[in-house]
């Protein structure tokens, strides 16, 4: 058997023990030594220091305390953390970042990331969230402003339509049919309206039953010019007549050639109405109109114009020398003035251009029509207009002007003018 006295006790501090345990053991030894120094005789006799000299008991007690501390530490980790000084959202963010960046050192002790770094990251996250919130609020405000503008424009459009349609009275409507083969096919509905003294019209592909109210907001409305409806009361020529006037009488040579030319009075009335418009807006390159003469029955007998020396055709036939380019410029100015009044001359030719010394004017308005009207019985002179013209359009006059340019200028002169 082995002698117990020969067994050597192991040292209290082991080199392989962790540093924190060594530190606690050294601290415990100091406390034990202090207690030994403070013992009295009664403590020695009673043997109360028996466990203090036993190194094995000290190590065992230290281990127990270490285990207890470890258990307490584990319990503390499992307990919920409460931080009263920080806001709830900041505390949660710090805790999440702290737990995600927690790591172990080489000796096994836990080591936390510094709070300064955590706060920096937290502030960075908060700044990003603030920027996103600001951008979202800005976008939301922009969307609201856009919606308000769109709503305002819609209200303006509705108000504008209501204002345009305000006071409109539907006078009549009628369905128009076109012939296709042997059958009639619906073409459109024509609606006539009135607002005060003004008359308007519109066409639509919609068919309305009798008694159905017509939705005016869906119609494209056009005004009807008053000269298209009402004849103008002719202006009487001054009495006595001024000197150097030309009295135009109805042309009877064409009487009875056709039914429309039999009613020459209608042609005279039409020319008097066209001349009435010219009288209100005179121009130096348009023949001056003084008014009409009325016979004892109250009928128009003659139209009174300013007298001119010759027609352009007579000047060319007589071989007179004149500035032909200036002549063309005068004709151009006269045509443009008539077009500005909504009139188409429809018979531009050398017989209807009159000259004095240097100025040239356009005259003879029996073929005149309002722009867009259907051409009547007199629709130009053969050779100076096109048979394809059906309506009174500006191209009718410029066609005649091109013919006059050919009449006045040689090919070389035309090239120079162009």
From TrEMBL:
It holds the Pfam family Pkinase. InterPro entries: IRE1/2-like (IPR045133), Kinase-like_dom_sf (IPR011009), Prot_kinase_dom (IPR000719). Residues 1-147 are annotated as: Disordered. One of its GO terms (biological process) is IRE1-mediated unfolded protein response. It comes from the Eukaryota. Gene3D superfamilies: Transferase(Phosphotransferase) domain 1 (1.10.510.10). This is Protein kinase domain-containing protein. Coiled coil: none annotated. Residues 23-33, 78-88 have a biased composition (Basic residues). SUPFAM superfamilies: Protein kinase-like (PK-like) (SSF56112). Residues 186-418 form the Protein kinase domain. Residues 34-46, 104-114, 123-147 have a biased composition (Basic and acidic residues). One of its GO terms (molecular function) is unfolded protein binding. GO terms for cellular component: IRE1-TRAF2-ASK1 complex.
